[in-house]
Amino acid sequence: MRAEDATSDLTPTNAASSGVTLDRKTLKTLARRSDRPGLVYLARWGAGLLVTGSFVWLSLGSWWLWPAMFVHGVLLSVPAYAISHETAHGTAFRSHWLNETVLWIGSLLYMEEPLHRRYTHTNHHTFTWHVGKDSQMPFDTPMALGGWLAEVSGFALMRFHASVMLRLASGRHSDMMRMVAPDDELRKMSRNVWIFLAVYASIGLAIALGVHWLAWFLVLPRLLGAPVMLLFTLIQHVEMAENAPSILQSTRSFRNGRLGRFLYMHMNNHVEHHLYPQVPFFALPALREAVASQVPAPDPGFVQTNWEVFTLVVRRTLGLAARAVSIRQAPHMATVGGVKRHMAHRTM
Amino acid sequence: MSEWIEVCATDCIDEEDVIRWDHDSRSFAIYHTKKGFFATAAYCTHQQADLEDGVVIGAVIECPLHQGRFDIATGKALRAPVRIDLATFPVKVEGGIVFINI
After folding, report:
1. Which terminus of chain A is less hemmed in, N or C, by CB atoms within 10 Å?
2. The pLDDT of residue B49 is above 80
3. Cβ neighbours of residue B101 under 8 Å, at least 6 residues apart?
4. Is the pLDDT reported for residue B81 higher than 70?
5. How far apart are alpha carbons B83 and B55 in whole angstroms?
């Protein structure tokens, strides 16, 4: 299917398809844009990176280098994902130029060409968790241990990002690329991705020539921090219903502590984000309060939700009953006797 | 033949806001910006979202569905995923009333 044809039978997954309503005045207020919260976020992120980077500096030459790079990597990777996501929506800043500049920086760190990120995510919002249509389904469902390991290790995402870059660079666009983006935009992506490849090749060459600080402060921390980033993104939709028109059935919100809310830019309010994607990150807590009576209560915190997902995945892989206790789960995900049939195959 | 048709009083749209206005089975988006009143087609050219639910940001309207942006005065598509410009319509204000020429 071409991008131009993909809208023929379109019912976007959002508040309207989920039966959630919000009075116009409140929504307009919540969707109001400002540069300030995004700039404050960048300043805090930068300050945090200076602190964790100094831990790496102080631990060079000792065993402590690896835990220091992990902490630095978590602070590097999770906000890189979050800011690239928010700027792909265009909601991080009021100013267009600021938004697009930060989108490029965030996308370089996240390792996905910015227009590809924007178009595939646009499609993800139109067809949230719809089998064969959603271009951002990163694993087969129901999830088994192999899928969990591939996802959380960062291997699956790295494989996807490498594949996308090589396809864009060579002009061999996939069916999914052609479904989500028009031809002239694919040509722009192919041009952009050569800039990405040049940056990554320069970093690799510099390290090979002895500029080792790039490895200690950027490359290795980015790899070490990726699993935590992926644990955040994993629980957005895992164990939830495929092909549901309602976001309330396909998507999960979860409680999050202060640090988690900062790292993830309040995207733990994921149901609310999918209902009203025009609401910027800093207004998501207020949006959550505004629609609280119409949406399910959020799942437990980041650690407990991830632990329960992990135990479900292990039990399912062992052929045991995989019924959730404290997190939300689509009825057909409560498998007994292992995965008999995959509902969805990954599109990433 | 085009004609000037009354839309509403100027105070029916808050500044930096938009409303949908239906007339003869056609729909229009009427904007109140700091630079005055403007009118475009009512629906996004990407996936037909109602721009009345969008966000007016200065001289720009942002689609509520995927945050594509258009210049309100010219209808020009500014940011992916929108690529096709919006139709625009002349607007005038007389005696505190907004008129559109369609």
Report:
1. N
2. yes
3. B2, B3, B4, B5, B89, B90, B91, B92
4. yes
5. 18
**Angle of the A114-126 helix axis to the A65-89 helix axis, nearest 10:** 70
DSSP letters, B3-58, are -EEEEEEGGGS-TTEEEEEEETTEEEEEEEETTEEEEEESB-TTT--BGGGSEEET
Answer yes or no: are the C-beta atoms of A334 and A323 closer than 8 Å. Answer: yes
Task: Please check whether residue A130 is in contact with residue A13, taking contact to mean a CB–CB distance below 8 angstroms.
Answer: yes
Non-local (6+) Cβ contacts of B11 within 8 A are B96
Q: Which residue of chain A is at minimal alpha-carbon distance from B66?
A: A122
Q: What pLDDT is attached to residue A62?
A: 97
Q: Which residues of A touch B46 (CB under 8 A)?
A: 7
The number of residues making up chain B comes to 102
Quick one: which of B58, B63, B57 has its CA closest to B84? B63
CB spacing of A27 vs B53 below 8 angstroms: yes
Q: How many CA atoms lie within 13 A of B72 on its CB side?
A: 29
Nearest to A28 among B17, B48, B66 (CB): B17
Q: Does A298 touch chain B (CB under 8 A)?
A: no
| Residues of A whose CB is below 8 A from B62 | 90, 278
Could you tell me the pTM of the whole model? 0.93
* Residue of A85, A96, A107 to mutate, interface with B, max B Cβ within 10 Å: A96
Mean pLDDT, 10 residues at a time, chain A of 348 residues = 53 93 94 97 98 98 97 98 97 96 97 96 96 94 96 96 96 94 94 97 97 97 98 98 97 97 98 97 98 97 97 96 96 89 89
With an 8 Å Cβ cutoff, is A122 touching chain B?
Answer: yes
Distance, C-alpha A94 to centroid of its chain:
22
Q: Tokens at residue A301, please?
A: 């915190």
A118 vs B contacts (CB less than 8 Å):
80-81
Which residues of chain A make contact with B17, given a CB cutoff of 8 A?
A: 28
Given an 8 Å threshold on Cβ–Cβ distance, is B60 in contact with A10?
no
| Residue A139 contacts residue A239 (beta carbons within 8 Å) | no
pLDDT of residue B2: 73
Secondary-structure breakdown of chain A: helix, strand, coil percentages, each rounded to the nearest 5: 60, 0, 35
Which of B60, B63, B65 to substitute to test the interface with A, most A CBs within 10 Å? B65
Distance CA A239, CA A339 (A): 13
Query: Which residues from chain B sit within 8 angstroms of residue A276, using beta carbons?
Result: 64
Asked whether the CA dihedral A87, A91, A92, A96 is positive or negative, the reply is positive
